[in-house]
Design brief:
The complex is a heterodimer of chains A (320) and B (396). By secondary structure, chain A is α/β, with parallel strands linked by helices. Chain A contains 9 helices and 14 strands. In chain A, 31% of the residues lie in helices and 22% in strands. With 396 residues, chain B is of the alpha/beta class. Classes of the chains: A alpha/beta (320), B alpha/beta (396).
Chain lengths: 320, 396
Amino acid sequence: MIFLAIFSFAIKLILHYHITWRMYEIRFHGRGGQGGRMAAEAYALAAFLEGNYAVSFPFFGAERRGAPVRAFTRVDNKKIRIKTQVYEPDYVVVLDETLIETEDVLEGLKEDGMVIINTQRKPEEVKLSKPVKCATVDATSIALDILGRPITNTSILGAIAKATGKVSIESIEKAIIEKFGERLGKEAGEKNALAARTAYEKTLIGVSQGGKAFVPRKKWLPDVNEMPVGGATPAMKTDAGLVGIGSFIENKTGDWRTFIPSIDKEKCIGCRFCWFYCPEGCIEMVDNKANVNYDYCKGCGICANECPVNAIEMKREVRT
Amino acid sequence: MMRLEAKKMVATGDYTAAYGALLCDVDVVAAYPITPQTIIVEEFSNFVNNGITDAEFIMVESEHSAMSACIAAQASGARTFTATSSQGLALMHEMLFVASALRLPIVMPVVNRTLAAPIGIWCEHNDSMPQRDAGWIQMSCEDNQEVLDMIIMAYKIGERKDVLLPVMPCLDAFILSHTVEPVDAPSSDEVADFIGKYDPVATLDPNNPMAIGTFSPPEYIQELRYQTHVAMENAKKAIRETTKDFARKFGRDYYGLIEEYRCDDADVVLATVGTVTGTAREVVDELREKGKKVGLIKLRFYRPFPAEEIKKIAENVSAIGVYDRAISYGVGGPLFIETRNALYGLDLPVLNFLAGLGGRDVVKGDIEKMYEILLKAKKEKPEKEIYWIGTRGVSI
């Protein structure tokens, strides 16, 4: 009798492990510099520490702070051979709330999939293209409280553990201490683990609103006959908008910004240091005072760093 | 530039190359000296200094810079010229890809010289042949007359709208570069009439700004690669037509991508490259006198490769040999690899003969040996494919 019980339990265990185990995929949406890639890697490490096989990789667009970045993680109980990007994720993780305004982060999400978003809002207050299982956490505030910096990648890991139940928070903490501790020191590693634990406890789970319409972004995709010879591209009007030199008129990049420079015109001495150092060339001098073109400012903070009279302050941007 | 009358001259291959650039009225020359190419740019700087041409001569600090300067000049609409050899070409490697991808028909003679180590200044093709995939049209000259004619044709072929690729005419170190022989030079008017004006597709112009060679995500590069691939395919047609036009105008025919020599009823043929071709013609004549049915293929172009032409000949012979002056270690000579690839599906022995590496003289006896092996291969299946002719301690 006992043998039979043990035997059937073992069979069940084997079945569970080998048959019911299905590879799952996570897509991370973040911005350059926010640590989305590190989050994806740390998650893979946490899954690995639990005896799984995990891979993680980033895909960069423009290699700039603030540019939208995607990272992917796959977890399975056996070696993962597929090398493509993830197109039909089981989970979508959004590190930067502004991204849900500009693109449909649910694209390709599996029917029973779930989205985990860094936001101050409750799941029911989040508006997406359709109602889906949704977890929210104010990772930015947690990061600012515990780390003193708005780097949300470790907090969001706690939220993923809570929302998915796929890895334990203990493994997440271990992975963070190993991965971040290595780079930033033991203390920083532990602080980041604490941020994850805090987020784990504060994560809310529910269902999002749907109905938000997204106009799919048109992309200029010339075929071999339309492609300019040698790729020499003049300013061109295409179905997908302006292309080539001067296309930045349409392609505004100010929404890459998390922090916004605020210039105290009283303090500004018109020295032009900020104007000179701005990598975007988006500071103009108006009446010999610095003035920022927020359509293109990516909030890098170089101007504030260079200002000799501390007339520029970087503030967290609140978007309505 | 000053008008130049047609003339007969006795000149080195290097001088001839410089004179070819002069006849083509190039606008910009940027170059760095390296033996045995130095004379080319030295002579051209003399033309500039003596007021024969108003071309801009840019002295640079390396071959990498020379090619960079030529790319920029050509992208601004100028017709450019440079020359190099061996280590200089290796240093230029990175920029070669830029020139072809931006579809800039720069012309650059390469004087084939051994690539170190050990350091050697003599002829070997292991400098130009590794540039195979750089998107340059690459060909080899048999004599100084061909050097001159090929530089003229290089501009004509490269600047065609269906081609727009840089061209690398190669000449063997010292055997051509420092050897004087009679050369028939046309007048500058005739050349101008033949090659026409360079009409760039895109130019760097502040009044009509354009993005050239900028950052490009994966969505775009594959289509550009395909375009360049098609351009190289088109180059075959352009070469065939240009050699015909050239023959009509100047009376010298180069027969497209290859020249057949006594192949008509041949049992076996040998494909040769560069100056060895001239010596091989002598050997073929002598063997023919002895009643041996041997033929010769002069492989003029390495890129694009004359696969169709070779296949046509191979269909009517019992064995084909390929002479190489470079080696792809562990496999064989680069021309052999290409030829065997072109002959895929045909059932005949394809043999490789390596000789003259490091600039060792390839003598008539060496070539006779190659034909001897080929004639034997016609009768019985050869034991191996690759033969190191005249290599001490290596039996053949």
